[in-house]
Automatic annotation (TrEMBL):
Heme b binds at residue 508. Residues 375-405 are annotated as: Disordered. This is Sushi domain-containing protein. The chain crosses the membrane at residues 848-869. It holds the Pfam family EGF_CA. GO terms for biological process: developmental process. SMART domains: CCP, EGF_CA. It comes from Coilia grayii. Belongs to the peroxidase family. XPO subfamily. Gene3D superfamilies: Complement Module, domain 1 (2.10.70.10), Haem peroxidase domain superfamily, animal type (1.10.640.10), Laminin (2.10.25.10). Residues 755-809 form the Sushi domain.
């Protein structure tokens, strides 16, 4: 753009500013930096001010609407999806910053565009409009600068031993790799519809490779839809394998959607409009759809943007992963310090997770409830018309249920998910208790962290050794994921956008339409019958009222997975009844997957094949050869026009399965690429030298999901391999069978002596932990550490240095102001204190005890006299049946 047109542009934008801002906010001068003319900071300030206003207004509007629909007692599918993707305060802060930034840039472009367009000028790009200082101002004012600050990483012994909750500092050089609240990694650059990140298909008339994109619901209906009854069953894999995939997915990625369900610019309700206006990206319902007439669009909210790179060069829309990428059991523990603390039982000395105080599963623990927002509305309670058996009785008022609270917001999504969350909550507590028996000197935090570390390893082993070979096929798995060779800090372990948005959703086509529940002996029971899948979604109340988690786990163990077949892709439970709730059109998971891919700007099928070194089809014949299915290729081309445009998720699941695996070549490549990066780029990978001792690693090798089920449920018969389909109950083994080995934790017993310095100095009362050649000390609550917090073995003197500390009782009564309420006296006790009324305060503990004995003795004497009086002088009407007297006639 030449200077003359820039000046012209400026005068135009001045007009905009005159309309928008007060006189003192006017741009008074044109910044002239080496011949480039910028809009000026008042203009930027104004755009920022309006962006904040629009963003906050949309959030407030959404909050009002949610409150209104809750008070009306309605839960719509979009409310359930929002509940499904709920995030914590850190994620919400990041999203707001990114949305303010996005809206600012959008406003600047919009204002300039209006005027340049009117005068037939080409739209200048951001670098031509804004100075480096302006960019800095926008980053600062939106909050993105602070969101993107590089964390400071500790380098002490504990930071080498335990992961952070956020995943930060796993990689010391790139501390945000794999961390929660960072953008997904891209294996291919996004292909949005415009420079700022409008989704593909935003304009239905937009051409890609000379063809428009078909409405996603059309693809779902024509290619995916399968009658619930018309499915083939997997001959060798169990439904628990499918469930494990979803469980691990919830460890790896959570893409939050924007908190606003109203259009930023107009405030229009996204769930009632067919207009595409960010963040509303509604899914159009085609005329051929049986749903036509109810609503013409299915609501869809764009995934939230993230703060990325530095403006302007890196300003393209990226989506956020709200949880840690690593396989670290974050769905159990949470992905922030706060949520980890919220999930703990902090008053237990055993490092336990908190349990449900109101309900148990026949004596075994359940997850705590989430705090309820409205007492009469329970998204996880029974919904009208949902009851399928006589056993289904809504919980009575005094026995209210709620959604369960876990490390991941999707815990309540369906009964299988609740069962796995509950199972691993119990497993953590079981491990922590066993570790405490082995190491009574460990602090609650140590017990918690050691149990968490074992849980992380268990998840890695079950996924890499048991799950992946079944999904990829043994041969492909060992080829694409070769044996571990050590930590590679250059590998970025962050979840890739295409993995979360397409590849790892492959298993949606292996989900059964029903949730099988089985009673003791794996027999069907009228108390917990098999349910259509949609009746199991957000149905936490069923766990409380219908026999706990055992029936669900037995069902997962004994029922087969659905087999992916090219003309039986996704069951109608998922395409027609997802999140069917009280009112509102149910969602279609197939359509959501496709629309999400477009929302994230994922390039088409061909580009991904090329990335994987596979052939890139350019004709129907070539596509048919890859799919091994001319009918399917024809269907896809009739919809998309060219193989290039086929949405990657549907293209990938259409490929025939590899021998012995459950995915085709493209999926195998993408899944293996991600799982390799997750392993090689993880500083805490369980096989990495120093993470566990050799003996501990050997013990961990024997881990088995069947054993975990035995140890934490009432189930006493299990299959030797729970991911393999069990056809007959006679093939199940008792939990005592040697093929269901116990996880032997004896290798976690800390040595009592050091080879050089001898006996490890422990302190009483107090906790200690041997970390490398250092002993770390902590005192229990109510005591203070006097002396060093750690001692080290000095190899020269063969002594522990310096001398170990002691734990000294804190005299809480010496605090000023007094820790006790007014008019009470404070008494210090070891580790605690008591507050007593002044009259009683002068009594010593022994005199209080003597007084209590005297009072009790007196009362007993009175009782005896009274009893004997009654015995000899009974009242007329009284029968002598008192227990201390014989019957007298
Ligand atoms: C009953 C079974 C399942 C249901 C009802 C279900 C439902 C959903 C829903 C509603 C979404 C969000 C869609 C969107 O808005 O984009 C989703 C996302 C996803 N699902 Fe499933 N799913 C199921 C099973 C599975 C399984 C078995 C896997 C993998 C093995 C899986 C992997 C994923 C992945 C990777 C995502 C994207 C997560 C994210 O980026 O936030 N799901 N699923």
């Amino acid at each position: 753009m030449d200077t003359a047109s820039m000046v012209f542009l400026f005068s135009l934008t001045l007009v905009v500013c005159l309309r928008l801002s007060s006189p003192q906010q006017m741009p008074t001068e044109l910044h002239n930096i080496t011949e480039v003319l910028y809009l000026g900071s008042p203009f930027v300030q104004e755009a920022l001010r309006r962006a904040v206003e629009l963003t906050d207004a949309a959030y407030a509007h959404t909050n009002e609407k949610v409150k209104m629909s809750l008070s009306e007692g309605s839960v719509r599918p979009s409310d359930l999806l929002a509940q499904f993707k709920q995030t914590g305060p850190q994620t919400r802060a990041h999203i707001r910053a990114a949305e303010v930034l996005d809206n600012t840039v959008e406003l600047i472009r919009e204002m300039v565009y209006t005027h340049t367009h009117a005068h037939n000028m080409t739209m200048p790009n951001l670098t031509e409009l804004l100075s480096a200082q302006d960019f800095e101002t926008i980053m600062q004012a939106s909050g993105c600068s602070s969101e993107m600050q590089r964390p400071i990483c500790e380098t002490d012994c504990l930071s080498d031993r335990y992961r952070s909750f956020t995943g930060q500092c796993n990689n010391r050089q790139y501390p945000l790799w794999g961390a929660a609240n960072t953008p997904y990694h891209r294996w291919l650059p996004p292909e949005y519809e415009d420079a700022l990140g409008a989704p593909r298909g935003w304009d239905p008339e937009h051409f890609y490779h000379n063809a428009t994109l078909p409405p996603v619901r059309c693809v779902s209906q024509r290619v995916l839809y399968t009658h619930n009854e018309n499915i083939s069953l997997d001959s060798s894999l169990s439904h628990l394998l499918v469930e494990w995939g979803q469980w691990i997915d919830h460890d790896l990625g959570l893409t939050p959607q924007t908190p606003s369900t109203a259009a930023f610019r107009t405030g229009a309700d996204c769930s009632r409009t067919c207009t595409r206006d960010s963040p509303c990206f509604p899914i159009q319902i085609p005329l051929s759809d049986p749903r036509t007439g109810i609503q013409s669009c299915m609501p869809f909210f764009r995934s939230a943007p993230s703060c990325v790179g530095t403006l302007p060069t890196r300003h393209r829309r990226e989506q956020l992963n709200a949880i840690t990428s690593f396989v670290d059991a974050s769905m159990v523990y949470g992905s922030s310090d706060q949520s980890a603390a919220d999930l703990r039982n902090l008053s237990s000395p055993l490092g336990l997770l908190a349990l449900n105080p109101l309900h148990s599963d026949q004596g075994l623990a359940l997850m705590p409830f989430l705090p309820r927002r409205q007492s009469h509305l329970d998204p996880c309670g029974p919904r009208p018309g949902q009851n399928t058996s006589e056993a289904d009785t809504p919980p009575d008022e005094g026995n209210m249920t709620s959604c369960f609270q876990a490390g991941d917001s999707r815990a309540n999504e369906h009964l299988g998910m609740i069962a796995l969350h509950t199972l691993f909550l119990r497993e953590h507590n079981r491990l922590a208790q066993e570790l405490q028996e082995l190491n009574p000197h460990w602090a609650p935090d140590t017990l918690y962290q050691e149990a968490r570390k074992i849980m992380g390893a268990v998840h890695q082993i079950l996924t890499w050794e048991h799950y992946l070979p079944r999904v990829l096929g043994e041969e492909v798995a060992s080829e694409l994921v070769p044996p571990y060779e050590g930590y590679t800090p250059q590998v970025n372990p962050s979840i890739a956008n295409a993995f979360a948005t397409a590849a790892f959703r492959f298993a949606h086509v292996t989900v059964q339409p029903v949730v099988t529940r089985l009673g003791p002996g794996y027999r069907p029971s009228p108390r917990h019958p098999t349910l259509p899948l949609h009746n199991s979604l957000f149905a936490s109340w069923r766990v409380i009222q219908e026999g706990g988690i055992d029936p669900v786990l037995r069902g997962l163990l004994l029922s087969p997975a659905k087999l992916q077949v090219s003309d039986q892709m996704m069951v109608e439970e998922l395409t027609e009844r997802l999140f069917q709730a009280q009112g509102g059109l149910p969602f279609d998971l197939g359509a959501l997957n496709l629309q999400r891919g477009r929302d994230h700007g994922l390039p088409g099928y061909g580009a991904w094949r090329r990335l994987c070194g596979l052939s890139d089809p350019s004709s129907e014949a070539e596509l048919a050869a890859i799919m091994g299915n001319p009918t399917l290729a024809q269907k896809l081309l009739a919809l998309y026009g060219t193989p290039q445009n086929v949405d990657v998720w549907v293209g990938a699941i259409s490929e025939p399965l590899l021998p012995g695996g459950r995915v085709g070549p493209l999926l195998a490549c993408l899944l293996a690429k991600q799982f390799r990066a997750l392993r090689d780029g993880d500083r805490f990978w369980w096989q990495r030298e120093g993470m566990f001792s050799r003996v501990q690693r050997t013990a961990l090798q024997s881990v088995s999901l069947s054993r975990i089920i035995c140890d934490n449920t009432h189930i006493r018969l299990v299959p030797p391999d729970p991911f393999i389909r069990t056809r007959r109950t006679e093939d199940l083994l008792p939990c005592t069978h040697p093929l269901i080995p116990l996880l032997n934790l004896s290798a976690w017993r800390e040595p009592d002596t050091d080879p050089t310095c001898g006996s490890i100095p422990r302190i009483q009362p107090g906790y200690s932990l041997l970390c490398d050649n250092t002993v770390l000390y902590q005192c229990p609550l109510g005591f203070v550490l006097i002396g060093p917090s750690q001692v080290r073995c000095d190899p020269h003197t063969q002594q522990w240095k310096p001398a170990p500390p002691t734990c000294q009782d804190v005299d809480e009564c010496a605090f000023s102001p007094s820790i006790c309420p007014q008019n009470t006296q404070c008494h210090n006790t070891p580790g605690s204190f008591t507050c007593t009324e002044p009259g009683l305060a002068s009594l010593s503990a022994s005199s209080v005890a003597a007084a209590v004995v005297a009072v009790l003795g007196g009362a007993a004497l009175m009782l005896l006299i009274l009893t004997c009086y009654r015995r000899f002088f009974p009242m007329k009407s009284e029968h002598l049946w008192s227990p201390c007297c014989q019957r007298k006639n």
